[in-house]
C-alpha cells in the first residue's frame, strides 16, 4: 500500500514536472516571439521616421523664401540713389548704390541664415517628437512584458 502511494506520488510529480517544463518551453517561445515582434515594431517605426524626416526636410527646403523685408536704412539709401540719379549726379549716385548693394547683400545673407536656423529648429523639434514616440513604444513594450512576467510567475 505504501509503495503504491509513493509510486502514485512520483507519477503525479513527474506529470507536474512535465507540465511545468512544457509550460516553460511554451512561455519561452512566446516571449521570444513577443520580443521579436517588439523589435520589428521598433525597426518599422524607425524606418517610417526616417522616411518622414527626409520628406519633411525636402518640403521645408522647397518652401520658397519669403519676400525680403529690407531695413529702413537700405530703403533710404535706394531713395537717395534714385534722387541723385534724377539730379544727374551719377558719381555720388554710384557711391550710394555700392553702399546700398553691400547693405542689401548683408541683409539677404542675414535673412538666409535666419531661415536656415528656423529650418534647423523645426527639424530638431520633429526629431524630438519622433524620439518621444520611440520611447513611448519602448515603455509600452516594457510594461506589457512586466505584466506578462508577473502573471507567469504568479501562476506557478
Structure, briefly:
With 156 residues, the protein is an all-alpha fold. 91% of the residues lie in helices and 0% in strands.
What does this structure look like?
- Helix 1 (2-62) runs antiparallel to helix 3 (90-155) and helix 2 runs antiparallel to helix 3 (90-155).
- The mean pLDDT is 88.
- This protein has helices at residues 2-62, 72-86, 90-155.
- It is built from 3 helices and no strands.
- It is rod-shaped.
- The chain starts with a helix and ends with a helix.
- The chain has 156 residues and is mainly alpha-helical.
Instruction: Characterize the largest beta sheet: strand count, sense, and whether it forms a barrel.
Output: none
Total strands:
0
Average pLDDT for all residues: 88
Listing every helix as H and every strand as E from the N terminus to the C terminus, the arrangement reads HHH
Overall 3D geometry?
A: rod-shaped
What structural category arises from helix and sheet content? mainly alpha
C-alpha termini separation: 31 Å
Helical content class: over 70%
Number of helices: 3
Oligomer state of the chains in this structure = single chain
Radius of gyration: 36 Å
Low-confidence stretches: none
Strand content range: under 5%
Amino acid at each position: 500500500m505504501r509503495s503504491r502511494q509513493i509510486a502514485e506520488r512520483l507519477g503525479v510529480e513527474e506529470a507536474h514536472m512535465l507540465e511545468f517544463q512544457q509550460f516553460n518551453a511554451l512561455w519561452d517561445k512566446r516571449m521570444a516571439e513577443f520580443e521579436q515582434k517588439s523589435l520589428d515594431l521598433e525597426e518599422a517605426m524607425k524606418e517610417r521616421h526616417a522616411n518622414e524626416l527626409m520628406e519633411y526636410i525636402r518640403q521645408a527646403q522647397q518652401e520658397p523664401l519669403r519676400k525680403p523685408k529690407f531695413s529702413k536704412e537700405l530703403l533710404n539709401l535706394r531713395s537717395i540713389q534714385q534722387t541723385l540719379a534724377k539730379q544727374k549726379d551719377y558719381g555720388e549716385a554710384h557711391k550710394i548704390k555700392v553702399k546700398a548693394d553691400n547693405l542689401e547683400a548683408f541683409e539677404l545673407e542675414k535673412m538666409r541664415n535666419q531661415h536656415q536656423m528656423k529650418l534647423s529648429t523645426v527639424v530638431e523639434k520633429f526629431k524630438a517628437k519622433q524620439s518621444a514616440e520611440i520611447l513611448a513604444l519602448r515603455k509600452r513594450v516594457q510594461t506589457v512584458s512586466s505584466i506578462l512576467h508577473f502573471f507567469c510567475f504568479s501562476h506557478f
